[in-house]
Design a protein that fits this description.
This protein has 142 residues and is of the alpha+beta class. It is 30% helix and 23% strand.
Length: 142
């Protein structure tokens, strides 16, 4: 039987280990931290009395490899996937605010959400429009 040593139990290390095990390769995974997941983790914030997530961006639907991993380890049913993007923020000035993407198709759903987002002033919104309009013209090398 083939063997492989993986150093690091972050998302990449766990993904590599899962795929290798699925190919009948014996894996030894080393992690220096007492927890797996690397920078993707949850923690309880004493100040807000809330569980906060770090690294949740890897769960976006555009990350096909992450979704494939969830299927491989048979964990996809443990998640609730949003149909439309909704992210809650806690802001010093505005308090709890949401970034809500409409049901439009990308990139218009994101553009609409960002333009309605209270945190951005008109100058920020103009820069966002310029940036989003430039995306279709970016080469894959940029």
């Amino acid at each position: 039987m083939k063997k492989c040593l993986i150093i690091g139990g972050g998302i990449s290390g766990l993904t590599a280990a899962s795929y290798l095990v699925s190919k009948k390769i014996k894996v030894t995974l080393l992690e220096s931290s007492p927890k797996l997941g690397g920078r993707a983790y949850s923690f309880f914030d004493q100040e807000t009395q809330t569980i906060l997530d770090n690294g949740q961006h890897i769960m976006m639907g555009c990350f096909n490899e992450t979704l494939d991993l969830l299927n491989l380890i048979e964990a996809k049913d443990n998640f609730i996937f949003q149909k439309n993007l909704k992210i809650e923020f806690l802001h010093e000035e505005f308090g709890n605010i949401n970034l809500n993407a409409d049901k439009w198709f990308y990139p218009f759903n994101l553009l609409s959400a960002l333009l309605k987002f209270k945190i951005f002033d008109n100058r920020d919104k103009l820069q966002l429009i310029k940036f989003l309009l430039s995306l279709p013209f970016q080469s894959k090398k940029s």
